[in-house]
Write the structure tokens for this entry.
Amino acid sequence: MEHQEADRLFGDLEVSRRSLLKGIGFGAVAAGAGGLLAACSSGLKGASSAATKNITIGWIHPLTGDLAAFGAADGFVVKKIKQTTPYSKGFKVGGKTYNVTIKSYDSQSSVSRAGALARTAILSDNVDMLFASSTPETVNAVSSEAESLGTPLVCSNIPWESWYLNLFPKGNPTAATETAKYVVMYFLGAEHLAACFIPMWNRIHSQLNTDKVVAAAFPNDADGNAFRQTFPAIVDAAGYTFDMSAPYADGTTNYTSMISQFKADDADFFTNVPLPPDFAAMWKQSIQQGFRPKLATVAKVLLFPSDTYSMGSEVYNVATDTWWVPTLPWTSSFTGETCQQMANEFEADGYGQWNANISNYSLFETAHAAFTAVSDPHDHEEVADALHKVNINALAGPLNFTGNGAGWIKPFGPAPGVAITPPAGVQWQKGTKYPLELQVVDNTLLPEAKITADLLPTNT
């Protein structure tokens, strides 16, 4: 009954995500007639799954806590996935049909909890595959556990350098030759964000005759460290002076010192990659202390409506990136539904404004492609090998995990097991249907995304 109740709450989002999956922190939803999987034994080959001809997929993601906005679309995604033929009727593998169970594990935005849940999923729940999504705070700990315990894993929504350097601390993103045996991922890289922001800076510079000084506030965490490695050379090559503050600790509450530095250096542009609560404090203090850049281009924050509305009018015309918008021509490999149809249904079903993490749907597309290419879905090595050979057109776009796909920005990559989904430049502007609306203002890296508004200065 506990699992059935978790299914109802997670699938339909009838209660707040902040009260979802408390206690041990995970629930299970069954897709197909196989019902819920009872954990009969442990082991890396999924013994209980094999006994019931069942495939078990575990998804570790932040449904509560500071990063909950990243999980806001995930209930809708699971609902849609459960309606597809493969997940409702079962996967056909090696001449047999396997029912599919999806288990959801709430990381609560905690790094340590994410790692502990990965161990629980692997060693106690005998999952055949894991998903991990949404920022290094969830994905990196799960990746480390999956790789060390030999369990196939698909990751999304983490800059690939942050993921790569976690698994290979001595690796070099400009010559990323190391291969994770069990883990693949799809998303963009820090270099894509730099290349996404620069065209927007150029347009504001031409418009307002600004200086070309970019204030950068990067924290002392996985994302911040990757951005410090990647951004300066790209920004310098574009003719901008990169004015970086000292690394700051996640959870910092007073940003006066860095704001004073940026004001003294007359920076007309601003970029950062903070946790959402940290940005809220940093940006409020910047406004109060008179640091008002002509264009702010931020990463990791203001990606989703919930974080944006919490800051009100302060976020008008702050720019960011997005890897998925309704105007993209991608379709579901299961149903043929378009991005626009998915976004429309998301809003019609009461989930609020469309959310870029509807693209997490493609975690399930990737899993299906790998499982249906093997002879034994419980053989972790065979499934992991199949993951590295997946090359599909999905709702998130073309996903090629062979390392030979498009979208790389030299000198970075390709890294084995990484598929790139390039970003578009977007901006939160006053809306008509909603008070704030995410408008596509630059499609340099993602020309398939339709421009929906003119780029506006953040502060005029």
